[in-house]
Amino acid sequence: MKNYYVMTLFPDMVMNGLNTSITGRAKEKGIINFEAVNIRDFTKEKHGHVDDYPYGGGAGMVMQAQPVYDAYKYIENKSGVNTRVIYMTPQGKVFNQQMAKELSCEDNIIFLCGHYEGIDERVLEMIVTDNVSIGDYVLTGGELPAMVMIDTISRLVPGVLNNDLSALDESFSENLLEYPQYTRPEEFMGKKVPEVLLSGHHANIAAWRKEQSLIRTKNRRPDLLDG
Ligand code: 6GU
Fold it and tell me: In this structure, are residues 7 and 113 in contact, taking their beta carbons and an 8 Å threshold?
């Protein structure tokens, strides 16, 4: 069983997303588990504040160290002290399929989602093991990135997909994009399914698909073919 913990101010957003579709079914099957931990539950302020003005001035608010630290301690009790803590930040290393493959071997992962102008640097220094971004653009918070990562990682955990081979034979698994797919009918508005796919000749089909993958990658993502 893999355990994914999400430290967040918006637990419903995370749980509603992950409980849907394949990740939700994998949780019901007991293959993976995810838990959103509401950082606000750990505030010691009577009005429930988790943020304050930045020292030195400037726009926006900063999430305070204490509730983040206490939420982490609550999770650490369950996950163990060596659990990786991934801070979702546009300043991190950019997430990719290789990273997902490596993380799919971890039994426990904690995802820390910031909001506002970020989180007090001192608690980040104390608990974060990895800084990860999902691309070069700025989101309002780390929740969508954490959900993107958990979705990508989960489908590489054995048993999550009905067909474990489909996780291997797909875009990026060999640095190539996936070949085009077709299903019934054989002809749609005058457009026919490529003949070779109807031939039953497995070697020819495999060769055609490999060629299509290469052509597609060259046209759409030539950067993947560099080196
Ligand atoms: Cl991980 N967080 C935020 N706030 N924005 C992002 C991101 C993460 N990755 C890309 N943009």
Answer: yes
